[in-house]
Amino acid sequence: MKVNVALILEDIRMNMYSISASIERIESAIFVTRQQLNHHLDKLQDNFVAEAVKNSTKQIQSFIMALTKKQREIEEWIEDVESIKKHATDRQTFLGMTNLETKLNKTSNDLQSWIDGNHLSQTVVSFHLNTLLHNIINERTKF
Predict the structure, then answer these.
(1) pTM score > 0.85 for this model?
(2) Rounded to an integer, what distance in angstroms lies between the CA atom of residue 121 and that of residue 94?
(3) Which residue numbers in the chain have pLDDT < 50?
(4) What is the C-alpha separation between 1 and 22, in angstroms, rounded?
(5) Which pLDDT value is given to residue 75?
């Protein structure tokens, strides 16, 4: 009996050692998988941010620059009108106003084309979580 109990104890201890080693291997595999998933998600996030900057932010910045330029031109024209009012002869006033009217018409047409071309619409950035990832998060509670 003593020998049988000793063999059973040794077998159970070996089983405990085997379980412990298996748990360590499984933990290691889970850790590696988590790192790979995190790395992949980090890459997806970086690509998303790069695309968002490339596609929307640069276009908006370009449009802001164009509008700022138009704003400066309009301010210059206002100064020109004030100067014409103070210092110009009737003929110079007529020629200056005709020139200004041409510029104003072109700017008005530009603004209208921006409005018609949806340049003034709000840009919305969004994403859709892949259903596979969603299922993993919500449905998988055990390994």
Answers:
(1) no
(2) 38
(3) none
(4) 31
(5) 92
DSSP string, the chain: -HHHHHHHHHHHHHHHHHHHHHHHHHHHHHHHHHHHHHHHHHHHHHHHHHHHIIIIIHHHHHHHHHHHHHHHHHHHHHHHHHHHHHH--HHHHHHHHHHHHHHHHHHHHHHHHHHHTTTTSPP-------HHHHHHHHH----
Q: How far is CA 73 from CA 68, 77, 93, 110, 132, in A?
A: 9, 6, 19, 13, 54
The count of residues in the chain is 143
Q: What is the pLDDT of residue 142?
A: 67
At residue 56, the pLDDT reads: 76
Question: Token digits for 5?
Answer: 């109990």
Identify whether the C-beta of residue 99 lies closer than 8 Å to the C-beta of residue 76: no
Residue 137 in tokens: 């998060």
Tens digits of per-residue pLDDT, 77-113? 888 888 888 888 888 888 888 888 898 899 888 888 8
